[in-house]
Specification:
By secondary structure, the protein is mainly alpha-helical. It is 70% helix and 3% strand. It has 2 domains: 42 residues; 92 residues, Chromosomal Replication Initiator Protein Dnaa, Chain: A. A hairpin with a 6-residue loop joins β1 and β2.
Amino acid sequence: MEVAKRNEEIRKMRRPRFTLRQIGNKFGITSERVRQILLRMRRKYEQCRRHGVLYFGTCRHCINEKSYKKKLRDMGPEIKAEIARLAVKGRTGEMVQERNLLIQHLVEKKGFSFSRVAQLLHRSHSTISKTYKRFGARRLRGSTAQ
């Protein structure tokens, strides 16, 4: 068995709570070696500086953010439908991220005031300004750290 495949199989087996000894017996290695492999694989995961989540390869939040920004740039009259979709009180992670990006887009690219954005999204202007400042600070902190 190829080493990379073996290591991935070891990582998958550890999830359902196999012991190090059980995993080692399956692959003919010691439990200490299994522990070392798992530790090395954990180090391969990175933490996204912008979103604070662990990822392997590319952060899914960054991918979603890039594609959603492109979608906003390409929107014409459909932006009204997008505003209506995000005006609801949903709190899923993806919806919150898209709402933050929409606020940023409306303020920076379209020149809307916080009050106008608040009217569109059925929120108070202070909520919009706090969201914009908090999201902007996180975005700036993430871009300077990279």
